[in-house]
Amino acid sequence: MIPLSVLDLVPIREGSDARAALAEACALARVAEEAGYRRYWVAEHHATPGIAGGATAVVLAAIGHATRTIRIGAGGIMLPNHNPFVIAEQFGTLDALFPGRVDLGLGRAPGAAPILGQALRKDLGRAAEYFPQDVVELRALLTGDIDLPIAATPGLGAKVDLWMLGSSLFGAQLAARLGLPYAFASHFAPDHLDAALATYREHFRPSACLEKPYAAAAMTVICAETDAEADLLASSQDQAFVRLRTGDPGKLPPPVPGYRQSLSLSEQGMLERLAAARAVGSPQTVRARIARFVERTRADEIIVSGATFDPLARQESLRLTMEAVGGTVLAA
C-alpha cells in the first residue's frame, strides 16, 4: 500500500471564522492520525479570506499538540517571504516540541497577490532569485553542514525533514541537485507533473538525508458513499477554485447541486484541467483513480487535498479514502 498524507489549507467556511477553521484542522488531524495517514501538512497562504493557515508554524504547533504520532509539517513555507534564520528557529522550536515528527517543505512562490511584498516590506521578485541559496543556508542552520557565523537556537541540530515543493521544473531540478525529497502540487497545477518527476529522478544526487529519489504527488480526493454524493461535496472546492482563478476569492461556500453545468465553457475548462490529479467519488471510484494515478506517476506517496463545506464530511472522506486504498495493492 502506498503511503497517504494530508494537505490542509485550513479553509474558513462561509458563515464561520478562523477560530472554527483552526479547531476543525486539529480535529481533522486527529482523524488522519487514527486512520493511518503518514503526515499532515499545512500550506502558507496570505491575505486570502477563506484560508486560516498563514501563520503556518503557529498552526502546526496547535496540530502537534492535538495529535501524538503523525508527522506534521509545512506544505509549504514560501521561503522568499522570510529569512532562513527565522524559519530555522520556528521549525527548530517545533522539533523541540514534537521531536521526530516535523517536516519542512519549501516553495518559491509568494503564496499571495503581489501586494504581499509591500506588506512584508520585501521585494519578493528579487527574493525569489535567491531561493536556492536560501535553501542551502536554511539547511546549514539546521544541520551545521556549513560553518555559519551564527547558530539558530532552537534550530541547530533539529531533526527536521526538508522537502522541496514545486509546480514546475525549477523545484524538481533544485530538489535533485540538493538530494531532497520532492512534492509536486499536481492538485492545482498538473500540467508539468510528468516532466518534473522525470527530471527529478533523472538528475537526483544522493545526499546525507536521502539515498535515492522520493517523490510525492498531490491529488484532490473527496470520497463519499456514492459518486453523486462526492460530486456534490466537491462542488464547494470547485466554486472556491473558480472564484480564485477569476479574481474573486472568498470563504469556502456550501455545495451547489449541478454546479459544473452552470459554468461557462472557459470556467468548465479551468476545472477540467485538474481532472488528471483528481479522485472524487465512491470508495470504488477513488480507489481506481488513485491506482491509475500511481501507475502513471510512480509516486512514492500521495498527498490528499480537497476541502468540504461540512467538516464531518471531510473527516469521513479521509476515513473512506484510507479504507479504499488499503483494500488494494498500489505499488509505488
From TrEMBL:
Keywords: Oxidoreductase
Keyword presence, Membrane: no
Residues covered by the Luciferase-like domain: 6-296
Top-level EC class: oxidoreductase
InterPro entries hit by this protein: Bact_Lucif_Oxidored (IPR050766), CmoO-like (IPR019949), Luciferase-like_dom (IPR011251), Luciferase-like_sf (IPR036661)
SUPFAM superfamilies linked: Bacterial luciferase-like
Taxonomic superkingdom: Bacteria
Family, similarity comment: To bacterial alkanal monooxygenase alpha and beta chains.
Protein name: LLM class flavin-dependent oxidoreductase
